[in-house]
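REQUEST FORM: STRUCTURE PREDICTION
Request ID: SP-0412
Submitted by: Lab K.M.
Chain count: 1
Length (residues): 691
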Amino acid sequence: MTSYSSALDRTQENLPSSPNPLRVLIIEDVDEDAELIILTLESANLSFTYDIACTANQCQFLLSSQKYDVVVSDYRLLGFNGLEVLKWLKDSNQDIPFILNTGSLGEEAAVECIKAGMTDYVLKDRLFRLPTVMERALQEFELRRQKKAAIAQIHRQAWRETILNRIVQAMRETLVLEAVLQTTVNQLHEALTLSRCGIVQPRSQEDPQLYVQYLSEGSANREELLGKTCDFYNHYREALLQDQHIILQDAKAQLPESLQATVAEYSIHSMILMPLRYQQSYLGVLCLQQCDRQRDWTEDEVAVVKAVADQGAIAIHQVQLYQQVQAELAERQRIEAQLRHDAFHDALTGLPNRALLINRLEHALQLAQRRSLRPAPTPAYQFAVLFLDLDRFKVVNDSLGHTVGDRLLQKVAQQLQSCLRIGDTIARLGGDEFVMLLEDIQDISDAIEVTLRIHRELKVPILLDGHEVFISTSIGITLNSPHYTEPDQLLRDADIAMYRAKKRSRGSYEVFNASMHTHALRQLQLESDLQRAIEREELRVYYQPIISLETHQIEGFEALVRWEHPEQGMISPGEFIPIAEDTELIMAIDLWVLQEACRQLDAWLAEFPQMPLTMSTNLSGKQFSHEALISQIDQVLSTSGLSGSCLKLEITEGVLIENAEVAAAILRQFQDRSIQACLDDFGTGYSSLSY
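STATUS: Completed
RESULT:
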């Protein structure tokens, strides 16, 4: 190959950077024309080497045996033409620019050649354009190569994330060590199409040997290998202890002679040894083997194995902690990193997410506005928004686990999709909240019909892990009207209607009206004012005497909290107590009432020492289950100087039933302090005849 080299000028600086000169294949059967091409490239101060082919055989030979950066070819050649050269270039699998240099072919014919796959063309009487055309072609091909590389990188990353997510999710379905590790090797075996996948571990800290403890169910010689020791694991022990992974592309060539018998016995061609380490603890080795062929492990495969090993080590460590402390292990933590969400779809259910829903709501609002501007008798464009919230979904999560809860959401999503009309949208906002957009409806009856269809569909029990799960949903409906200008306004009002439906009766629906919004604004204002009610001393404690029916004497008092609002006057507890419970302010209010009531009782006992008075105060469910409850009561009794026998704490029966073990422990501590516990509203909850 002939070489020409000179300093690069401004034209060459724009070409793709390369440490080597351009490799050019010139296909020309006229020596003078070939010389002109070379002189033209030289005049542009390009650094290049070239080969010249003037026959079909030379052309085919060079394309099959050499690699080039660009091909410059005449069209009409002795015994062949430029289209044939283009075909040979494609057959050589070289994705490089093909520039047609012709003098006898018209521009229209040259354009047809471009359509056939040639990159560009230069007429021989305009050969001065060749460097510019070549520069542009090389830049285009370089950009195309970079784009392909970027797409390939995205695909590899998605592949890694998909495999890792599937394996980690499967690992987190159980906290039993044997199940975790067996699931890990099974999933990895399937994902990477291995011959064997196993975990080797020491049986004790004193035993230096490593034993095959787990093998994927599809492993060759599985029953024979389980429980055996393998010397080549111990051969790399020091490296593995230093958290170094071992990659053997050709086990026979890379292992020492002393281990060749083991390699031959178990037909091992390629292998990965990945240490299982958690912090400074060495927990074993994850081993992957290929027995049917030699395998070149890719960086992506090694990265997946490393990530799985890290997760496996964490799982082993957690279970070991459980075994050491002999305590119940809480549900595994949620997966440490969530995969990138698709821009417009929910990762769990595959439904449109909030972003896509907002986009479609905006489109529906715009369509309704455009339709309203058309002259009569064009009908108005009507659409409805349904806000759905699953009833008692938290119970399913708490009892069957989050994994089952996620599967329930997926099943519910499928059922909701079956209720849609063509062109409607169902989106998941998050948690157990879904939103439906019903477009082009006649009136509110269409939305109610879909709502009833949803309720009928969800009455069918869903089978999850052998459990029949019944689920219902509360639905709020809002119909579009001219005063809606933003999607959030529609969602806000549908949400308000949904909560009204849930409050009225689970598994029901409500259609939004303006009074609901007014009520919501009042609730919001009350919540804001309640935040400062204690520090502004707006709360009042009223004491209702408790009189013995036998002696007609006062035996004690019940402390009742009231809110004297500076602008709205006295506010009923039935209005502000639910707000306090929702915002967790109820715990601060309960503690304040307890302090005030004990202070007052102490004053009355000092004034009437002959009367054995008691004080009853209400205790909310959240305060009852708070970890600091007993210490707070002790502090109040110590400050007031009262005995625990003077105190009666009223709790609802629901608090006792929902968490009986915790309730029993707290009641025992009440008993130790002589504090009496009373059931409040008995007969309205679990003990009600209507329950």
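NOTES: The chain has 25 helices and 26 strands.
Reviewed by: T.R.
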